[in-house]
Every structure is written in structure tokens, then in C-alpha cells.
Queue: 2 jobs
Job 1
Amino acid sequence: MKWLIFLLALLFSASVISNNSVSQQKGQKHPENLPEFTHHQAKSWINSEPLSVKKLLSQNKIILIDMWTFDCWNCYRSFPWLNALEKKYQKQGLQIIGVHTPEFDHEKIRSNIEKKVKEFKLHHPVMIDNDFSYWRSLNNRYWPSYYLVNPQGQIVYNHVGETHEGDRKAINLERKIQELLSIQ
């Protein structure tokens, strides 16, 4: 009986510790302003020459950063929604930027990333962040994560996780995009 009580106490303690870790991770602070892109070589970009946050903001762009990696199923299932947003709002000033930050070594190979970009019909620029420098500059922890940035460079909306057309996260983000586009 004593070992059962000990085991239950141990499990309870592990649960509390685990829940506190998750809470601390979810409470991570992101910078107020979007950091400048960390990769400036053409080989680090797909579908675009190297971009600059400063230049995009000078063009009065609203930026949506999509942090993803190609072995992430939640990322895959979000691409149709992301492509629909791009098609709907790109001409009005929305610029989607994918930031591919790998989880595994085979995800660091440019040709593998290019195949996935083509497979999922991603037309927006994608920065390859193999060294996690941009990931760290955002203090990011999850795939996928989305950062919406106003024309002043401020991160005004952030959410984590798979997103589909019509779900609460997608609706909230689209409303925020519409609000920012109407202010321009």
C-alpha cells in the first residue's frame, strides 16, 4: 500500500512539474517588433531574392510570418488556409513569408525543402533558417507559429498550431488582417 501511495504522489508531482513547464513555454515573450531577417544570401531563400523587413515595412506591407518545418503534419494541414489568405489579400498589401526551421537533419537540405514548397504550391518567399537564428530572434518554440506584423513593424498577433479555413484561430487572424488593411 505504501508503494502505491508513493507512486501516486510521484505521478502527481511529475504532472505538476510538466504542467508548469508547458505554462512557462506558452508564456514565452516574443519581441514587440519583428526582427530583421537573419539570412541575406540568395541560397537561403526560395521563391524570392533575400528580403528585408525594413524594406517591406517601407512599402507599407503587412507581414505574416509562418514558422514551419516540412516534417510537421500540422504545418502541412495549414498550407491550404495560408495559400487562400495569400490569394485573397496579397494585392491589398499582405506579404506572407515562410521561415523554414528544421527539426531533423534531412530537413536542412535545400532540395528537400524546395520539393515540399513545390508539392504544397507555396508561392510566397521562404527563408531557410537552418541555424535557428530567426527562430531564436522571435523566441519561438513551436511549429507552426504565425506572427502578424503591422506596417510599423510591431507584432500585433501571434498564434501557435494548425489552422484551417473557418476555425476560430483562422477567423481571428483574418479579422486582424482585414483591420490592418483597412487602416493602411
Job 2
Amino acid sequence: MEKEDLSCIDCYKVTCDSQDFPYPDFCQTVKYDGIVEEAVKLLKDDAENSRLAMAAAQVEGNFYCKLTRVEETVKFAEKIGAKKLGIATCAGTIREARIFAKILRKNGFEVIGEACKVGNRDKTEIGIDDKDKIHPDCYEPMCNPILQAKILNEEKTDLNVMMGLCVGHDALFIKYSDAPVTVLFTKDRVMGHNAVMPLYLTESYYRKLL
């Protein structure tokens, strides 16, 4: 690859996490030094950004390797002063969403959750061919992440938590959510929602990926 095509994923020094200077000659910290300053300024001077960044850093620093992501999400919501939390869940993980909502309510939050099938409209209404359904020739409600976001916007949530939304549906939910969004877990039907597992197995069972 040409040097101009290299980025952080091609760096084996990770100077930005260690200060093992000098930086590699393709380092993004050097290449985009002007944007670095702009981003730091946005973290410092924008009140909303600062509130989220400070809370995230405090949760990381105070509970590093001590709390699960469920617990960290609770702590993060507390630190940003959130009172009303929205859950955007896959219909297939509604049981997990109920359990998480129970945990949040036990910790004093108001919670509202929206499943992906809310609105209950067939996939063909947005142009999906019947043959591309999971079960062709049957009624099959579409996932509607835009509607999930818009309902939570109407409810004026302070923080929204995504639970198991499909690839792409998650992108649409984030795009339309007024409140900040964090992810409790991602969808991976094959791996039991442990989406990173195939990356660990690229030298064995999942070498087909390479």
C-alpha cells in the first residue's frame, strides 16, 4: 500500500496510546494536526460534548475492568444527569430489553422502550422484494429504526440505548435520534450477539474471512 493510504489500523506502534515517539511517518495525529486541535476544542468548549466526554472518561477511569457494560451504562447515565432513558431494541431481544429496563428502573431512571417492529408495516411497502424476506410469500413486518428514534424523540429521552439492532438499522436509528446514543450490544444472530468472535477466529474456524 502507498503511504498516503495507511492509517491507524496499519500502525503497530500505537504511539498515540503510549508516547513511544517518534510517530510513524504516516501517523494520522501528524497528518491531521489541525483537525486534532479543532476536535479537542469541541470536547472542551461545547457544553454537551464536554458533559459526555467527561462522564465517559470518569466511568472508564474509575471502573476500569471492574464493571460490566450494563453497569457502566448505568453509571454513564447517572454522570450525565440523565433522568429518562430510551431503549431501542430488536424484537428478538425484547426479553433482554425488559431485564435491562428493570435494572434501570431499580436505579431510579424513567424508561421507555421501542421494538424494531413498531408500526407493524410489511417490508414490501418500502420496496423490498418478496423473495428477499426471511419467509417469502408471508406477511413480514419491517424493522423501522426511524420510527423508533422519532417516538423516543417525542418522549424527550435524555439518552438512548441500542440493544441488538440489525446492521444498517442501527445507522438509521443513530441518524434520527435527537438524544445521544450508546450501544449495549450489537446484533449477531450466529454468534449469540458476540460480534467480535469471528475476528478472534480468523486463524482457525473463520479463516474463510481472509
